[in-house]
Amino acid sequence: MVKQDRSVRTRQTILSAAARVFEERGYQMATISEILTAAGVTKGALYFHFPSKEDLARGVIHAQDQVLPVPARGYKIQELTDTVMLHAYRLQTDPMVRAGVRLSLDQQAQGLDRSGPFAYWVEVVGALLDEARTKGELLPHAVPSEVADILVGSFAGVQAMSQAVSDYQDLLTRASNLLRYVLPGVTAPTVLAALDLTENRAHATAAELGLTPHAPTP
Amino acid sequence: MVKQDRSVRTRQTILSAAARVFEERGYQMATISEILTAAGVTKGALYFHFPSKEDLARGVIHAQDQVLPVPARGYKIQELTDTVMLHAYRLQTDPMVRAGVRLSLDQQAQGLDRSGPFAYWVEVVGALLDEARTKGELLPHAVPSEVADILVGSFAGVQAMSQAVSDYQDLLTRASNLLRYVLPGVTAPTVLAALDLTENRAHATAAELGLTPHAPTP
C-alpha cells in the first residue's frame, strides 16, 4: 500500500516536472535529462513510469484530458457550458492543464500524435450534445458531431489567442463570448433563455468541485 | 531598377527559406545560419534585409498577413466569408502562409510578439463587419468587434485542429462549418438566405484572383 502510494506520487512528480519543461522548451527541444533533473527522481524511476519522451508528453496531455464531471444541471447545454468554462478555469490556474493543451497545439512536436486530445474532447462535447438533442434542447438543423467539432476547434484557437494577447488574463471572457455567439445558433429558444453563459460559471463550477488555483509548482 | 528588382527577389528568397526552416524546426530551434544555408544568399544580404531572427519571423508573419482583396460582393458578409475561405485556401496551398500562421501560434517562440497577427486579422474582419452593420446586414445584438474576435480566434483553432487531425486535408470543410454555425447567429435572415457559405467559395475566389497552388519550394 505504502509502496503503491509512493509510486503514484513519483509518477505525479515526474509529470509535473515534464509539464514545466515541455511548457518552457517545447516538445522538440525538451530532453529527458532536463525532465530528470527537474523531477529529482532516479533515472530508473523515470524510465519505469515513462520509457520515452513521447510517453512523457502523452502522460501530460492525458492529465489535462481528465474531464472533471460537472454536476447534473437542468439542461444538458448548461452542463456543456460549465464543462467548457471549467476547462478555461483550469487552463488559467493549473500548469499541468496548460502544458497539455500546449503540447496538443505544438506543431513542431514531430512524432507525437496530437489528434488524440482533439478526438477526446470532440467525444466528450459530442456526448453532451447528443443528450441535449434527445432532450429536445437543440434546434432541428444542429448536428451534434459538427457542433462538437466547431466548439473544440474554436476553443483551441480562442485559448491560443488569449495566451498570445493577454497571457490568459482574458480567457474567461473570451470563452464566454464564444459560447454566447455559437450556442444561440444551435439551442432551442426556451432553453437558451434559461442558460447562464457568463464567465461566472467558471468560478462557480470550480468552487462546487472544491478546486482551488494551483500554487505554481516550485 | 534592375538592382531594386534583385533586392526584392533576394528578400523573397530569404523569406521563403526562413518559412521552410521555421516550419520544420519551430522558432526557438531555428538558427540564422540554417536559414542562410537554405536561402543560399550571402550573410551580408541576409543581415541587410533582416538584422535578427525576430525580424525574419516578423517578415514571414507579415507575408501571410497580406490580405488579398476579395472583389466586392452584393453583401459584406459574403465578402467576409470569401476572405475567410480564401485564407483557408492559401493556408492549404502556400507554404509561406502556413509558416506565418504557425509562428503566430508557436507558444515556445520566446521574445516574439505574437499578438500582432491576431490584432491585424481582428481589424480586417472587424472592418468588414462594421460595414455589414452599416448596411443593415447584422442582427441588432451582434457586436462587430466581439464577432471579429470570435471568428479570428476560432479560425486559429480550427486550422490547428485540421492540421493535427488531417494535415489540412479537411480544412475547407472545417472553415465552412465554422461559418455555417457562427454567421446565422449574427446575420439578418434576408442576407443569410442569399449567402453561399460552402467550401466552393475558396476555390472560386482563388480562381477569380488568379491564384494557383504554390509548388512546394525546392
From TrEMBL, chains A, B:
<feature type="DNA-binding region" description="H-T-H motif">
    <location>
        <begin position="31"/>
        <end position="50"/>
    </location>
</feature>
<dbReference type="GO" id="GO:0000976">
    <property type="term" value="F:transcription cis-regulatory region binding"/>
</dbReference>
<protein>
    <submittedName>
        <fullName>Gamma-butyrolactone-binding protein</fullName>
    </submittedName>
</protein>
<keyword id="KW-0804">Transcription</keyword>
<keyword id="KW-0805">Transcription regulation</keyword>
<dbReference type="InterPro" id="IPR047923">
    <property type="entry name" value="ArpA-like"/>
</dbReference>
<dbReference type="InterPro" id="IPR009057">
    <property type="entry name" value="Homeodomain-like_sf"/>
</dbReference>
<feature type="domain" description="HTH tetR-type">
    <location>
        <begin position="8"/>
        <end position="68"/>
    </location>
</feature>
<dbReference type="InterPro" id="IPR050109">
    <property type="entry name" value="HTH-type_TetR-like_transc_reg"/>
</dbReference>
<dbReference type="InterPro" id="IPR001647">
    <property type="entry name" value="HTH_TetR"/>
</dbReference>
<dbReference type="Pfam" id="PF00440">
    <property type="entry name" value="TetR_N"/>
</dbReference>
<keyword id="KW-0238">DNA-binding</keyword>
<dbReference type="InterPro" id="IPR036271">
    <property type="entry name" value="Tet_transcr_reg_TetR-rel_C_sf"/>
</dbReference>
<dbReference type="GO" id="GO:0003700">
    <property type="term" value="F:DNA-binding transcription factor activity"/>
</dbReference>
<dbReference type="InterPro" id="IPR023772">
    <property type="entry name" value="DNA-bd_HTH_TetR-type_CS"/>
</dbReference>
